[in-house]
Amino acid sequence: MTANVAGYLLQLLAGRWLGVAGYSEFASLLAVQLLCAVPALAMQNVVAREVVRGASHGAVRAMQWRVAGLVAAVGVVLIPVVAALLDVGVWAAAAALGAAPALVILSGEQGILQGSNKFRQLATVLAMAGTARVVPALLALALGGGAAGALWAGAVGIVGAAIVAGRITASATRTAAQVDDLGDELRGKHRDEPRGKDGDELRGKDELARGAISGVVGVLPVLRAVQVQAALMALSSVDLIVVRIVLDEVDASRYSLGTIATKIAFWLPQAVGVVLYPRMAQPSHSARAIRDALSVLSVIGVVAVVGAAVAAPLAPLFAGEDYAPIQGMLWVFALHGAILAVLQGGLLSAIAVERTALAVVTWVGLVVEVSVMLVFARSIESLIGTAVSVAGVTTAVVVVGVLRGARVRAGLAG
């Protein structure tokens, strides 16, 4: 929650300080940064799943460094592409892409904590990471650094957060291991182990089994999860890129500020997936955890939409009178985010049970949305209407597929 509040504060103050003439550039670069964070989001989910299944921390850390290297290489190639597409400077494009490798490392540490059920330490890391990203960016904006300066400052903060997260994870998991060893010793577990040749063989087989578990943690599972997260993040962010193509600068900035309501509704229930994801990855609890997650996400979404409608008159007080024309549509932006939150819950469950083929539905939705926006949308109303409609249909199809799969797995388990 701390990280989300900090992110919303950054966007509100950026909207006020940069004005309607400059905010759309910053918002578009943030959307690019969010898309570049896709490997990081996938990394956390895959690491958490593999830790639940018994993978060693050394194996998952080796994987996250390999993925970080790949992300850095791809980012370098994409800098001129982003600069040309968004009509921004190369320095600004590099700023949007620069934090991606550090985000992968940070998310890997978060995945270890999540898979180990260390939710108190995970909450600490999430709050610390959000603050470390936002505070330097706010200082850069206040000092006149512009969009590029703010994003570079945030990237430096993420690097620091990744270093601190590694230390927190190491301390938490080391303490847990020490407690487990002490419990084994007090229970006299080692006295009951077979001795002699048979005991050596059993211990050797156990070590081989642990090694086998560690060895399967490669880059491929991350890539499969990446395409799921990429579909979701693209669907939730592509409108911020298209808006700079089809609208003028003023309306593009107004639309971009309206998406703060989308982001609030989207990220507000993030903890639901974080807490229930380890259960989704366990076959015996998966079906129940998926149903619980989707139900809670739906209820929170309704609350978010109602809250946006009630609070809409306050929007100009925080963002400025230039944004008053969109206050009556804030509940629609919130509805978009609420629908995407349910979609995220469905896709998270697909990653947990390795049914990532469901992401095809989201990719199709993305193509439809971009095509309709580019051809027909020429106003704020038509853009957000298209986004909500496509997200609604996509989410309905994914949720039906997820629930049907959950019922089948529950029947097989029973």
Structure, explained:
- The two termini are 38 Å apart.
- The protein has helices at 2-36, 38-52, 57-86, 90-98, 100-115, 119-142, 146-186, 196-215, 219-246, 249-267, 270-280, 286-311, 315-319, 330-352, 359-376, 380-413.
- 86% of the residues lie in helices and 0% in strands.
- The model is unreliable at 190-216 (pLDDT under 50).
- Helix 5 (100-115) packs antiparallel against helix 6.
- With 414 residues, it is mainly alpha-helical.
Based on the model shown, name its key terms.
mainly alpha, globular, 414 residues, 0% strand
List the helices and strands and how they pair.
Elements: H1 2-36, H2 38-52, H3 57-86, H4 90-98, H5 100-115, H6 119-142, H7 146-186, H8 196-215, H9 219-246, H10 249-267, H11 270-280, H12 286-311, H13 315-319, H14 330-352, H15 359-376, H16 380-413
Structural class: mainly alpha
Strands, total number: 0
Report strand %: under 5%
Distance N terminus to C terminus?
Answer: 38 Å
Model regions low in confidence, pLDDT < 50 over at least 5 residues:
190-216
Instruction: Report the C-alpha radius of gyration, rounded.
Output: 23 Å
Instruction: Please describe the biggest sheet, giving its number of strands, its sense, and whether it closes into a barrel.
Output: none
- The secondary-structure element order is HHHHHHHHHHHHHHHH
Number of helices: 16
Can you tell me the overall shape?
Answer: globular
Mean pLDDT: 82
What level of helicity do the residues show? over 70%
